[in-house]
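Hi support team,

I submitted a single chain yesterday and got back a structure, but I'm not sure I'm reading the token output correctly. Could someone confirm the output below corresponds to the sequence I sent? I've pasted both exactly as they appear in my results page.

Thanks,
R.
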Amino acid sequence: MNAEAPIPFPHAGRIADEVRFDRKELGQILRIYGRMVAAGEWRDYAIAAMRDLAVFAVFRRTAETPLYRIEKRPKLRARQGLYAVVGMDGRVLRRGQHLDQVLKVFETRLIGPV
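Hi R., thanks for writing in. Yes, this is the structure output for that exact sequence:
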């Protein structure tokens, strides 16, 4: 046996530069996602991590454009807010510093007419 240091993955430096959702943030998002799936509104999702933002996109059907995008942009933390919910048409529906406050935009869609 040889006690050499492990060989790092070639993309290890790139991963640290990407913006990602942490476990708590994903838990909050997936809680809303699960409720909307149970209500029959959403059926699929996609997660993307890029250099300047992280996106959680929700779809009615896989082949369509996303209904909503939940975005995390650290560069906007001091100005408009770290998190945003963007609609299918590109309008920002809600923006803020706290994810739980931003996700409240979906509460009205869950209540709806009975």
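A quick pointer for reading it: The mean pLDDT is 84. Let us know if anything else looks off.

Best,
Support desk
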